Fold each of these.
Amino acid sequence: MSAFAHIPVLVKETVEALAVEPGGRYIDCTLGAGGHAAAILEHSSPGGQLLGIDADPEAIKVAEAKLQAYSSSTLLINENFVNLQAICIKYDFQPVHGILFDLGLSSLQLDSNTRGFSFQHDAPLDMRLSPSQEITAADIINTSSEAELAHIIKTYGEEAYSRRIAHLIVQERPIAATLQLVQTIERAVGGRRARIHPATKTFQALRIAVNHELEYLEAALKQAINLLGFEGRLVVISYNSLEDRIVKQLMQRESKDCICPPGTPICICGHTACLRLITKRVITPSPVEVQLNPRSRSAKLRAAERIITQDESFKVAEKLNFLVGGKASGWRRPALLKKLRIAFSLP
Ligand SMILES: C[S@@+](CC[C@H](N)C(=O)[O-])C[C@H]1O[C@@H](n2cnc3c(N)ncnc32)[C@H](O)[C@@H]1O
């Protein structure tokens, strides 16, 4: 298959949301075939630097070839982005101007005849992003209890027929290949669903479970926020509602000064906003982009900007603690900013 068969999604919007500038330092946590990385490098030259991460060694090879012209400005690492902070410490790559997550799978993975991600062609039920992971989709299918399977399919696939599907899987296992699983799901669901392929949700659920996608995303986003310098941008493109919910909730929470439960008379959380939302509304591909690249149809881009860095927030906490005699919590944003200006002798 061609190394360039993956068409990157929302490229112009991503470069804009990252506010890519010459000389900037960026991290692409989901390098894939290097499409977004190439655009970031193009707009950040001269002087730009990019750390590219992908759990899939095949993706690293493909991206390496694509980004050859920028080899002196790139560092490509075959790792899981759940280790983002450790990677940045190891390679002394922080703080950064922007971090991108373009979640999900690349066409290189979806179209592969050996990886088992797609229900459209037969392959072993693998679904691991990296061959170094131990648990495959076949392991989950063939060793989980019926209740565990139903839970996975319902939670990660939001599949209404999860129990019916899990029941038939247990009856028919061992199941080793994708098409055998597809036929089992089709029999379980019958003619009940017309809008999407009956196996779509179960395949999504298995992939998420095999790769711990949701837990790793949440952990990596938190690390990413702390790696951003002042006004650094975090941009995330997600492809399903479970991913998008995590991104949306985290960005919203981190852009609020107070996260006390509604109705709390005085703020007791001491939380300080460290992000400003760049995308008040989610950005989606235009109808033209969807027509040219149908795989972009479910993409949702959200972006936020770091408004106070980790170092600064420590300093602020210290100063405020000093200024208000250890009673820093309870300050709402305008009051906090006023104190901050005085503390740092700002105009
Ligand atoms: C949609 S593709 C990215 C495509 C890329 N933006 C491009 O323009 O070619 C998503 C990539 O993220 C990688 N990926 C997904 N989850 C990951 C994780 N937890 N750690 C590292 N890479 C991950 C996948 O292996 C895949 O290559």
Amino acid sequence: MAAWDPQAYGRFAAERRRPVDDLIARLPRPDYARIADLGCGAAASTAALAERFPHAEIYGLDSSPAMIAAAHRVLPEREFRVEDIAAWRDPRADLVFSNAALHWVDGHIAVMARLASDMPPGGAVAAQFPDNLDEPSHALMREIAARPAFRAKLAATAAERQTIGGFVDYEQALAPHCRHIDIWRTVYAHRLDSPKAIVAWVEGAGLRPFLAPLNEAERADYLAIYEDEIARSYPRQPSGAVLLAFPRLFVVAAR
Ligand SMILES: C[S@@+](CC[C@H](N)C(=O)[O-])C[C@H]1O[C@@H](n2cnc3c(N)ncnc32)[C@H](O)[C@@H]1O
């Protein structure tokens, strides 16, 4: 997987914080004692959890050393460690939280069910997944990757979709372990100031694996075509704003 860059991901922090707050708002209990933030990145989600649950023991883990180094700088008073979600277990955690990270783990729906079944009574698993693979922003990445100039280097990336499940997949996996399940999908319409801003947004996330295999000249060519196509798919509104529609899927499951 292409390396995560805390600086690139940190742009659009306010927009990226919104689903974290929306997920926290739907947690069924007013308090939790021990919270694990899986795939915490540079601690944006951990910071939101710490604001909402200031008395809880909260820690974050992430497989990226660069993200964990940034997390230590953001919240020096909390614990962060480099660790893979797939290998993580903590039966004492009564809230397992994961914002925009769990879908990177192979078989993430089964992993989520296992996390739920490991919970103490009253514990909850809460996750948010970007659901934007079929949006023009992401369809265009694959479409350009399939063009002759890029096919040789990008065919594998374009074929590797980090797909998430549908409502019924999470319902069926979690219902045997949980008494409370809340699943919803929200489409945010982020108002950005230019098509270039959309490119800057995805450079911090979904575009990384498409740019990583390319050399400098190929990367410049790919980006020029991508920016052009993005401008066509996301026209400026009369206000001057560009609207980035961004669907996200949310799951909260409690024992
Ligand atoms: C989109 S970022 C989200 C960061 C953070 N949760 C937030 O809301 O700002 C996804 C994070 O998941 C991490 N990640 C991806 N796969 C992982 C895995 N298998 N184990 C641990 N972390 C992982 C990445 O390193 C990245 O920091």
Amino acid sequence: MTSTATRPRGARARAAIAAKTLRTDRWWFAPLITVIGLSAWVAYATVRVFQHDNYWVDAYHYLTPFYSPCVTDRCVEAASHFGRFLPGWWIIPDAALTLPFLLLFRLTCYYYRKAYYRSFWLSPPACAVPDGHKEYGGETRFPLLGQNLHRYFFYAAAIISLINTWDAILAFHSPKGFGFGLGNIILVLNVVMLWAYTISCHSCRHIIGGRLKHFSKHPVRYKAWTFVSALNVRHMQLAWITLGTLALADFYIMALAAGWFSDLRFIN
Ligand code: FES
């Protein structure tokens, strides 16, 4: 039985039921699919980040988001829009300036927290299914106390989305000047989805519309808050969609850079 010391305030002790859970539906499916999906994505991203190759298509100025901005002295000069000031050691990602913040932004995201608490920590794996741990401390102690820093990682993520947007604009390039191909569609799609995910953040919603007593006195902020709130409802979907668009953009550019196939060009 849960002790009063570890039970959330106001919660009652669990009824004395011998069965682990009375649920008969496939409650384990969501945690399982989350573990598979997140593990596969992290494995792919880790391999790509430390590959240090096939991240730039010189003819069309395509740069994969996994290497943006490219800041080590190993980076191709044309792909280094912010300089090459870090040493090109194998252990240092070429986008070392941004990747840690992106990782922390996702790691502390309200949706991802729910996802990995349930699936990796089984805390709890689903509603009406017991916690996989004897104690429950919530996010009141180190290291989970750090989840409160999410609002600051939001600001970093917004700046990084601006950088990705700049990359997508620069990619409208061809050896003849302006150019447009399938790679552009993929990069723009990725950037639009990244903005949708970033703006739909719960912290963003609070920054835009929080601490106001009267919405009627702040019509612009109210409009913005209404827009963000509509996106916020889809935050979980956007979290997964952006994992997909990031992987797609990276894979497509890797394939072009490796010469597996050519870009489908519409103009130049
Ligand atoms: S809550 Fe998910 S990104 Fe902020």
